[in-house]
Amino acid sequence: MEIKNAKILITGGATGMGYEMAKIFKEKGAEVLICGRTEKTVMDAAKELDVLGFTADVANEQDVENLFKFVEEKWNGLDVLINNAGVGYFSDLVATTTEDFARVWDINVKGAFMVGREAAKIFIRQNKGNIINIGSTASLYGFANGSAYVASKFALKGMTECWRAELRKNNVRVMQINPSEVVTEFGAKSGYGSNDNGKKLTASEIAHVAMSMLTMNDVGFITDTTVFATNP
Fold this sequence. Notes:
7 strands, alpha/beta
C-alpha cells in the first residue's frame, strides 16, 4: 500500500513503539491518529509529532466507541489500525491475583478485540484495510512468572488468526509483529525491568518492521514476523 495520505490509527501511540511508528508514518506523509489513556501524555505526543490525538482507554467500550466516532468525523474512513496498546505484569503463579490477571487481559485482549471489531466495520464497508496487532515473543512460548502476560499474548495471536481468516475476502490484511525485548518504558512499568546496553531492540526497529509490512504491494502480505536483537 501507499503510505502517503494513508489514514493510520495507532493505539498506545503516545509512547514507546507506538510513538516511533506514528513518527515514521507521519514522516512518510500519512495522516496519523494516536490514542492513549492519559490525556496530557497523548496531547503532548500529538503536538510533538504533529498528528491527531485522542484520549481513550481501550479497555472501556464507551471510550472505544467515542474513538471511532472521532475517526469517522475526521476521516470518514480508515486505512490502517495498529493495535499497540498493552500492559505487562510478571509474577510467580501463586502471587498473581485474579485482579492482576484480569487487568492485563482487559487491555491486551478485550481492548484489542473491541478496537479491532470497530475497525473491521469500516474495512468491510470499504472492502479494504490493514490491521497490525503488536504481539510478543510471549505469544509463541511461555516462561516462568509470565502467566498473565503470556496468556494475553497467546489469545491475541489466536484472534489475529481468526480475523485473518475472516477478513481476507474483504481485502483486509491482518498481520502480527512479535518483538522480543524492546527497550521502552514498558519494562519499568510492568516491573520486568530492562537493561539498556545499547545492543537490544529499540522502538525504531519495530516501527521499521511495521513500515515494511504495510508497504508491500496489496496483492500479498506478511502474516506475522518475529523480531530479535542480533546479540543482546
